[in-house]
Task: inverse folding
């Protein structure tokens, strides 16, 4: 039994990019705490749907390409056709391009910033308008990164986007706290997902990264479950503008 402040029974959470990886794990954790899930994905989230239904929760499937502004504008009206009120937004969807800064193309820069930062802002704006119009409290949870705090290498557009997420989270918290909207972020450490496949396949980089993690292991998507439930629940009602590292101690090494 969850403590009452962490119980999400009767709530609905929209999670972007929840067909695989971190998004799928966070959707699963939210459903386990009582949430129905609106999944916003480009491709079929079949495994995620099965996980949500095993918790006895409902899954609403919305397909959208978050790199397109027109698609973003249409998402909240589509959600409102399925659920009376949305309570939580998790901005998880993101992409990465690995290339030296000297050779990074404008297309690779724009592709990453469009999905990782622009879409986060405009979808958050649309969902915040939904909260304000209905005079209901809401939770917005962004997904930042270790590169919100550090520079990294060969990922200029990704670092810029995730640094932007940290600042945007603070800005939106400043503006929207008066509407009872909590805006916070999770900064995952080095996780075993598709985005880190290139790093994990490089024996040298893999060991370099592992050697700096005090926990002694790479993270798994399920490691984000507790953080996302906390930030989505009443337990975090007095938490605003915070970016919570879930990194096995990477940043304190």
Result:
């Amino acid at each position: 039994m969850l403590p009452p402040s962490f119980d999400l029974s009767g709530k609905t959470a929209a999670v972007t990019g929840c067909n695989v990886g971190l998004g799928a794990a966070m959707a699963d954790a939210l459903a386990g705490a009582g949430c129905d899930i609106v999944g916003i994905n480009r491709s079929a989230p079949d495994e995620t749907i099965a996980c949500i239904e095993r918790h006895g929760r409902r899954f609403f499937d919305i397909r959208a390409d978050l790199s397109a502004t027109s698609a973003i504008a249409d998402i909240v009206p589509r959600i409102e056709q399925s659920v009376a009120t949305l309570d939580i937004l998790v901005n998880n969807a993101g992409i990465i391009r690995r290339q030296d800064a000297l050779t990074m193309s404008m297309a690779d820069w724009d592709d990453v910033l469009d999905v990782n930062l622009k879409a986060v802002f405009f979808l958050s704006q649309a969902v915040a308008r939904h909260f304000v119009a209905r005079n209901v409290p809401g939770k917005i949870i962004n997904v930042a990164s270790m590169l919100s705090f550090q520079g990294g290498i060969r990922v200029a557009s990704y670092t810029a986007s995730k640094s932007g997420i940290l600042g945007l989270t603070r800005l939106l918290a400043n503006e929207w706290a008066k509407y009872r909207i909590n805006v916070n972020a999770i900064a995952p450490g080095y996780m075993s997902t598709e985005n880190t496949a290139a790093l994990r396949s490089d024996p040298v980089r893999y060991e370099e990264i592992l050697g700096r993690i005090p926990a002694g292991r790479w993270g798994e998507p399920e490691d984000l479950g507790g953080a996302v439930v906390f930030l989505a629940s009443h337990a975090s009602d007095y938490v605003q503008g915070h970016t919570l590292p879930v990194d096995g101690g990477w940043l304190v090494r």
Notes: Strands lie at 12-16, 36-41, 59-63, 88-91, 138-143, 181-188, 243-246. The first helix runs from residue 21 to 32. The chain has one domain: 4-245.
